[in-house]
Design goal:
The protein is of the alpha/beta class. It is built from eight helices and ten strands. Strands 5-4-6-7-8 form a five-stranded parallel beta sheet, sandwiched between helices. Strands 1-3-2 form a three-stranded antiparallel beta sheet. It has a two-stranded antiparallel ribbon with strand order 9-10. Strand 4, helix 3 and strand 5 form a beta-alpha-beta unit. Helix 2 packs parallel to helix 7, helix 3 runs parallel beside helix 7 and helix 4 packs across helix 5. The chain starts with 5 loop residues before the first helix and ends in a 12-residue tail after the last helix.
Length: 294
């Protein structure tokens, strides 16, 4: 897991909070001091909370489930989209569509509609449609791509939600809490840290601050995915070894039970005493030799 560097957070301005008059009293444990009417966040507690959140993210990623990132504010859009796209996780950087989680079936229908439009554009039937209607379909496709393009591959609800600014994304947080989905969030001094499961006290208005924190979360997810792949490889190797051991044991058992030819040319299994002894027990031979006539 990436080491959370105190100095990186300091250089990114993660310690700057909001004006004192805008603060949320629930953030008191994470505030270091007040300076010139602005609250200063205790970065030591930020580092501790980041490590806790990153460890939880890593464990979720090991299960193979998706983690959705939500950042619709201007300062976070490009940063989050760039970092999350690299690790192939779903993200929302445009307007949060109400019911994205609680009404997921309807959202999936909209994604399928986008796929059907793509199929129509590639088909020969596309050239037979009137030009005006084609323009309308293309505009609808662009609109769907803008709002849902980043979650088109998400077939089921995410295992967790990471939010930048819980006040702006309060609808997303409320939907996740309703469905008992774990929530991670960057919370500033004007936010309520109790509204999410894993709060990270930091400046949520500076692009550099957001980039540092999201990068750590993404690195933790990558580590979890890699460990999952490594565990799969180990399990596969173990299954192959077990299969080879079973084959060797079966071969040895077959060799032990394989019939061999005796001195009389008859086939018998290993361990048999032979045909002569069996006939003597049945009384077929007399000790003097020859058959005994009745």
């Amino acid at each position: 897991m990436s080491n959370v560097n105190f100095n990186e957070l300091l250089d990114a301005g993660s310690h700057f909070g909001h004006l004192k008059r805008k603060w949320n009293p629930s953030m008191a444990p994470y505030i270091f001091m007040e300076k010139n009417g602005i609250h200063i966040i205790d970065l030591h507690k930020t580092v501790a909370k980041m490590e806790e959140a990153a460890a939880a993210m890593k464990q979720i990623a090991r299960t193979g489930r998706n983690i959705m990132f939500v950042a619709t504010k201007k300062q976070a859009k490009e940063v989050v989209a760039e970092l999350v796209k690299e690790i192939k996780m779903p993200y929302v950087t445009e307007r949060w569509p109400g019911g994205m989680l609680t009404n997921f079936a309807t959202i999936r229908k909209a994604v399928k509609k986008m796929d059907s439009i793509d199929a129509l554009i590639k088909s020969p039937q596309w050239n037979n449609i009137a030009k005006r209607e084609r323009l309308q379909i293309q505009r609808e496709r662009i609109k769907l791509e803008k709002n849902l393009g980043s979650i088109s591959d998400m077939a089921r609800l995410p295992a967790a939600l990471f939010v930048v600014d819980v006040m702006k994304e309060h609808i997303a947080v409320a939907e996740a809490r309703k469905l008992n989905i774990p929530t991670f969030a960057i919370v500033d001094t004007n936010s309520d840290p109790n509204s999410v499961d894993f709060p990270i006290p930091a400046n949520d208005d500076a692009s550099k601050s957001i980039a540092v924190i999201v990068k750590v979360m993404c690195d933790a997810i990558v580590e979890g995915v890699n460990e999952r792949a490594l565990d799969k490889d180990k399990n596969l190797e173990k299954e192959i070894e077990d299969a080879e051991e079973r084959e060797v044991k079966q071969f040895e058992d077959d060799e032990d039970n394989k019939p061999v030819r005796g001195s009389d040319g008859r086939r018998r299994r290993i361990g048999d005493t032979g045909g002569d002894d069996n006939r003597q027990r049945r009384g077929g031979f007399k000790s003097g030799g020859g058959f005994k006539r009745k």
